[in-house]
Amino acid sequence: MTASNSTGGDAARPITVIRGDGIGPDIVDATLRVLDRVEAGLDYRFHDVGPAALEAGDELIPDATLDSIAETGLVLKGPVTTPSGKGYTSVNVALRKRFDLYANVRPVVSLPGVVSRYENLDIITVRENTEGMYSGEGQTVSEDGSRAEALSVITRDESERILRFAFDLARERGRRKVTLAHKANIMKSTSGLFLEVGREIAKEYPDLEHDERIVDACAMRLVMNPEDFDVIVTTNLFGDILSDLCAGLVGGLGVAPGANIGDRCAMFEAVHGSAPDIAGRNIANPTSVILAAALMLDHVGDSERAGRIRTAIRAVIAEHDRVTPDLGGEGTTDSFTDAVIERL
């Protein structure tokens, strides 16, 4: 499906909007209402992937969607389910590879009013997004089902790219420290190369503190003393795990946005699943996608509107105003969004 809704006149910036499936359409539509309220100046190009595309008789990732992403270079995406069964690959992984979205950025910030074990946390996980064990390369299973293999490849070029991205991000955002998470004590070739490159890159940023943590010890330290962390950079699989752990420290995936950034394209999304059990019930929390939209505005240089959106979200949750059931309230997706819009 392709449609357009301009919010900024002739000068509107085109973006590809993928509403996703399950609760995706509800929370993406809520986010577009917020973007319209702040007059973000965006021209929405609606396209499908995943189950929504298959139901429309198209491919899992239609050519029209790929063309739109290539043209706009900017994507706002709701959660997408990978259909069960052989032959279906992860839509998220496929899009990251197709558009070389090498940096996965997952910030988590404590929000007053969200039940969590900690307060005043502000941690960014930067995850290499294109290689390593999570990339899906070399996956084989023997004919008798008794042996399975997968290939993990780490390259110097990709390690340099993600590590420099993380250090640049820390510097640009006024951060104090970058932590390199690795498993070089056991995975001496792959994780060892990543750590070696990290040490080299760190020398180029004398204004930033850096430390190194073995990934399992890093996970333990995050649970015990999360205030020790500022920016974490790591490889694909480790980053997938640690970023979810960090989300849990501030209340869960429902309040954690995500960004996938490349040199020519960027995709901003909810990091949680499509929650089909509550789809269409108007009770899904749109915070993750709304905060992802704020990241998108930061990316295009509109930090003023991004800041207004974050301030409104914080106020609504802190005041427990019409919040959704997962936040302990009796509100709906619509009422929560109304509360945010009123504060804008």
Automatic annotation (TrEMBL):
Which InterPro entries does the annotation name? IsoCit/isopropylmalate_DH_CS (IPR019818), IsoPropMal-DH-like_dom (IPR024084)
Q: Does the keyword Chloroplast apply?
A: no
Q: Give the main EC class.
A: oxidoreductase
Gene3D superfamilies this protein is in?
A: Isopropylmalate Dehydrogenase
Its domain of life? Bacteria
Query: Metal-binding: present as a keyword of the record?
Result: no
Family matches, as PROSITE patterns: IDH_IMDH
SMART domains per UniProt:
Iso_dh (SM01329)
Domain Isopropylmalate dehydrogenase-like intervals: 14-340
Q: SUPFAM superfamilies given for it? A: Isocitrate/Isopropylmalate dehydrogenase-like
Q: Which keywords does UniProt give here?
A: Oxidoreductase
So what EC number does this one have?
1.1.1.41
Which Pfam families does the entry link to? Iso_dh (PF00180)
An annotated Gene Ontology molecular function:
isocitrate dehydrogenase (NAD+) activity
UniProt record similarity statement: Belongs to the isocitrate and isopropylmalate dehydrogenases family.
Q: What is this protein called?
A: Isocitrate dehydrogenase
Q: Which organism is it from?
A: Spectribacter hydrogenoxidans
Recite the lineage of the species. Answer: Bacteria, Pseudomonadati, Pseudomonadota, Gammaproteobacteria, Salinisphaerales
